[in-house]
Amino acid sequence: MENKILLIGTTNKGKVREIAEELKELPLIMKDLSEFPDISPPEETGKSFFENALLKARYYAEKTGFLTLADDSGLEVEALGGAPGIYSSRFAGPSATDEQNYTKLLNLLKGLPREKRKARFVCVMVCYHPSGQLIWSEGVWEGLIAEEPRGNYGFGYDPVFLVKEFNYEKTAGELPLQVKNQLSHRAKALKSLKEKLRDFLKELK
Ligand code: ITT
User: Which CATH architecture group holds 4-203?
Assistant: First the structure.
């Protein structure tokens, strides 16, 4: 099969690293938005992870003419009724840093015992072709919110997310890329997307 171009449609460098690593064995030439500095990101007006992932994938596919993969993801905290959810990247304000976002979260949960600190990462991925054809998938990763940040790997809320698979003793920020990529919400969404992508690539004109 001839190699097709896939644009990774995200402004988040942490996501680009994880997605490129996971898809590297597919017959694809991967591009990212650093090659398109004139395209500014769309406003995320959707009401769900799926709506926002579709909105981003369609936007970048239509702007560039390339098959595009976009991810909408976030952290749902049980004690906060599922917040910050689709607003995860702007939890502490429109241009908040990762550290400001997780510090706000830690302050809101201050004093809550372990059993009330349940959280999950959710990721919805959409792969959209400019012809209008699309496939999508979802992944979830369960954990607990730590009391203090730990670890320098990853991005976003990784330093405060205690991982179930490590008996809640390690944060996602303490997991090297290859380890996070076996467990995370994004890894799960990508694995199921990968299976659909092989057939999808064959069907595309
Ligand atoms: P794009 O929209 O350009 O993809 P973004 O960072 O704004 O970049 P989202 O709107 O999907 O992406 O917001 C996702 C936010 O959720 C992200 O900025 C983190 O705060 C959080 N998040 C998602 N996946 C994460 C992960 O694997 N580890 C830590 N935090 C994560």
Answer: Alpha-Beta Complex (3.90)
pTM of the shown model = 0.96
Residues 108 and 80: beta-carbon distance below 8 Å: yes
Which sequence spans correspond to the domains of the chain?
4-203
Q: Whose CA is nearest to atom 31 of ligand 1?
A: 156
Give tens-digit pLDDT for 143-174. Answer: 999 999 999 999 999 999 999 999 999 999 99
Closest CA to 100 of 149, 141, 144: 149
Cβ contact 101:92 at 8 Å: yes
Residue of 36, 100, 157 to test ligand 1 pocket, by largest number of atoms within 8 Å of CB: 157
